[in-house]
Each structure stands twice: as C-alpha cells, then as structure tokens.
Amino acid sequence: MSARVPLGQPSSGIEDLIARRELSAVFQPIIDFDEGTILGYEGLIRGPSGSRLEAPHALFAQAGAEGCAIALEREAARTCIEAFARLECEGKLFLNFSAGAIRALAEASESTLSLLRQSGVAANRIVIELTEQSAIPDIGSFLPIIRTLRASGAQFALDDYGTANASMNLWVRLQPNVVKIDRFFIHDIASDPLKFEAVKAMQHFANASGARLVAEGIENEADLIVVRDMGIGCGQGYFFGRPHAQPSRVVSDDAREAIRAHHIAVFPETTRTVGASPSGGMASDRMLVHAPALPREATNNDVLGLFNRLPDLHAVAVVENDEPVALINRRAFMDRYALPYHRELFGKRPCLQFANASPVVIEKSMTVEQMAKLLASDDQRYLADGFVITDNGKYAGLGTGEKLVRAVTEVRIEAARYANPLTFLPGNIPISSHIARLVSNEAAFYACYVDLNHFKPFNDEYGYWQGDEVLKFAAAVLADVCDPTRDFLGHVGGDDFLILFQSDDWHARALRAIQAFNEGAQRFYAPADRLAGGIHGEDRRGNPTFFGFVTMAIGGVRVKPDTDAALYTSEEIASVAALAKRRAKQEPSGFVLIDSDESEALIRGRVDSPGFIGG
C-alpha cells in the first residue's frame, strides 16, 4: 500500500502538476482612466491551493530548478486563456512570458492560434507581456519573433519597465504597443519628486513613440490622481482590485469617483537649491573660460609667447597628463619679466619657476553652495590669480573671481524663482504653472494670498536671522494646514505666500493657520516685549510708532470652473488675491474673501495690482 500524500502537498514535480492540470488562473483588472472602464485583465497563475507551490514565485522557482520553466509558462498561458474564455470577460487578456517562452510561442504559432480559436478568444484581444527577468542576448534575432506575434493579431508589451532588463534599449528596438511602468515608480509617487520626474520622462518618451502606458502598483487615491493628471491613460493595482478567480466586471464606485475627481493633483516638487541651474547646465558653465594650457616642460619664453598672442588671457594653466599642476597669473608674470635681464636669465628655464603650484581648483560639477563657501573662505587667491576648472579631474578651462561671484548670484536668483532658498517651498514659476493647470482643467479653487503684519519692524528690531525664523515658522504653519494632495503652497518671496486650495474645508484651514501663527509667533519676542504687547520702532516715514505682534493676514478669491476661466492668467488671479490680502490686513480677523462676482469683475477689468510682488 503506497504512502499517503499530505493534504495540500504536490506529490511530484512541475511536469506532473501540468499533466494533472492542477494550475489555476486569477485575473487583475487594468483600468482605462479616460473611459472609467476596465480595459482588460492580467492573467496570473497559481499552484495547488494550500501548497508550498501556490505562490507564483515559488512555482516558477521550482520550475527553473527542474528545467521546465518554459513548459510551465505555456501551461500558464493555456490555463489563463481557457479560464478567461469560460468567464466570458470583456476586454483584453494580458499574459506574461519570458523571452524564451515568447520565442517558443512564435515557433508554435499555429497551435497557439488553434487554442485561441477553440477557446473563443480572438488573437487581437491578447497582449503578450515580456517579463522583466528576461535578458535578450540578441535583440536583432528577436525582432522577427515580435513581428510574427503581431501578424497574428496580438499586441506586445514591456512589463515592469524601469527595472532589471526592461530598458530604454528594448523600448526603442522592440517598439512595444504597451509599456507597463514598474510599481516601484508608482508607489508613493504623489510625495516622491524623483519618482515623479522619472515617470514624467517615461511619459514624454511614450508620447514620442506612440506606446500606451499602464501604471502598475496603484494602491491609493493620491497616487492615482497624480498618474491620471500626468496623462498616463491606464492603471493597475490593489486600489482597483486584487487578483481573483472571479474578477469584478465593473470599476468599483470608490475607484470611479477617484478617477473622475474634479480636483487636480499637486505634483511633488523637486527642491532646486544645488548645483545645476534650473534652466539646465551646471553653474560652472556660466564662468568657464576656454583657454589653452601649457605642459609642465614649457619654458618661461613659451608663457611669454602665449600671453603676447592672447592679450585677454588673464592666466595660463600648467598641466601634466591633462591634469592641472600649476597656474601662472598674467599680471604677476609680466611684471616680473619686465625687470632688467629677466628674459635673458630666466627665459629658457621651466615655467614652474614663477607658477603657483597650489592653485584654486573648481570641479565642473561643484554645487552653487560649495562655490558660495569658496567665496566666504579665507583663501582669496582666486580674486587675483583666477582659478582652474576641471571636468572629472581633467583640465577644462579657467575662471575669474568676478565670474565666480556673478555665476553664484545669477544661479541663486534663478533658483529662487523655482524654490525659495529659505523655506524650500515652490517659487513663482511653479506657482504660475500650477495655476495654469488648475485653470486649463477647469478646476474650482481658492487662491489665498498670505502676508505677515508688522514683519518689517520685527525684522529691523531683532535682525534678519530671527526674521528668517519667523518666516520658516509661517511656512511650517501653512504647510500643516494644507492637504498636500489637493492644496498647493508656494513662497512668493519675503513674507508673502500663496495657497491654491482645493480642499472642501479650505476656509477652516485658513482660519486655523491664522490662529496657530498668531499664537506661536509671540515666542520669538523677548519677555519684556511680550509683556508690552509689541515693540517700539519707526514707520515708513520715520515717525516713532508702537507695533503689535507679528500676525498673519490671508486674502482669498474663488476661481469658478467655467469656460471663461480659461481667459484668466496666473498673474491676474494672483493680483486679485493680493488685493484681498491688502484688505485682510485691515480686518481684525485677518481674513477676507472676495466673492465670485467681484473677483470676476476685477479679473475682467484687468485689475492693476502687483501680482506676485508682495505689498
């Protein structure tokens, strides 16, 4: 009598499982955002229920160990196709295949097509997904295989793009119909600016190549709204449904409401306070002087000849193996050479005799902050001698102290338009961009301009360092009352902020910010000033005046989602909000809302207001 096999445990290997047809299929929906419907389903395989091979990763690991992975993939496809046909699901069926299994599938195209015909699933409803584990050593030989599959009517997709073997090379060479973005890039994309930038690059290339993107791993509404507003048309993940043998035939009410949500996403902003200029390129590019260098073996006569040929050259670098070893300043060299007999005595001697053997060297990738530290350092030789700029340690050119100061200043001013260097909040350019997105999408929102009363007298009395602490406190208070998925907070400059509210309870949030700031700001005063209720100072005309505590004022304007909203510019909307803020500064509550009729009249009248400039 044979021994009994424990319940739930397979009695033999993968091939026996296949022979006994013990595999089962589950399906996960893929959603079309534009239509709000199910585009199709990804078919996934499971081993015997309750066994150690139930999970697909264990199943395929065992198949790999037994050398029958391709056979398992083909059986998985057969099982998914037959189950899909029995369920009579609508839409497309997405099937996972390795490169080797796709090759085998194409070679057996007749048997595959026969299976499809027998199951009642048309070939044009099948999407073949190339899994990310599949390395293709010879892409050239793989192209005819893809053409064969497409000729049968099936479509081709890259799965889990952005990881492992799913590379840009494959995208360009194979030209897939569909590209599925790996869940790593989608999970928490609403709060991760680097993931957002990576997916934005994928979206840009998809538009150029004509591929349709599917965002995998969507698990919450915030990520869904960001993906939707980026223009990615399809999504998949637990938010829409887990893999199931009896998948839902319709999009759930919660998912449908999220897809059709009227508010638009607040895209995560990358802080732009280092190295690269916001408009592209490194800060060092602004001060690079392309200049010839001399080898270590050069003589002083060679230096003199170079300076005579290039009268505008302020210095010359001495290099060895393309790496700088010294710097010769023009003025110091020429002054020394003008002395009697110096040319005769020193002309044929090595140029290093009059060189600075430890010049200031700036690597091309140096950040703006590192350059600023150089400006503040005790070593100020660069002001007279200039300095050497290198690219990965190799000589690239020269720079001057004047160009260094100008480059740091220009990049900091430009960067501040993107992100405020004190609070790291988005600056005027992202603010304008977000208003334009709100308007173009006909989203209802409230533009609220925020200003601090009596901030200048406080700054004059306590100094800029303490004033900066108050501004950072104001930014923290405002950020705390905003919903980061709906409300956009920007720092216009100085003590001026702008919030673009889409939260339904925006009014309560604004009042909460005023209360929290007004209470918390008093801790920045000295005990005596707190007891006195403020500080003594001078007004703008120089008259002695008593100023109360720094307080917050918020002026709001409602922008309605109608067809005329497209006529409004970000400057006009900000201008009306700034007008509301000026009124709020006169109100004891610190809050004023300009109603819809007045705001529309002001905008249509092209109100004369400072826009993003605080007042």
From TrEMBL:
Q: What is this protein called?
A: Diguanylate cyclase
InterPro entries associated with the record: CBS_dom_sf (IPR046342), Cyclic-di-GMP_PDE-like (IPR050706), EAL_dom (IPR001633), EAL_sf (IPR035919), GGDEF_dom (IPR000160), Nucleotide_cyclase (IPR029787), Rev_trsase/Diguanyl_cyclase (IPR043128)
- Where is each EAL domain found? 7-257
Q: Which Pfam families match?
A: EAL, GGDEF
Organism (species): Paraburkholderia saeva
**Alphabetized PROSITE patterns for the sequence:** EAL (PS50883), GGDEF (PS50887)
Q: Which GO terms describe its molecular function?
A: cyclic-guanylate-specific phosphodiesterase activity
Domain GGDEF, first and last residues per copy: 443-597
Gene3D superfamilies, per the entry: 3.30.70.270, EAL domain
User: What SMART domains does the record point to?
Assistant: EAL, GGDEF
PANTHER family tied to this protein:
CYCLIC DI-GMP PHOSPHODIESTERASE PDEF, SIGNALING PROTEIN
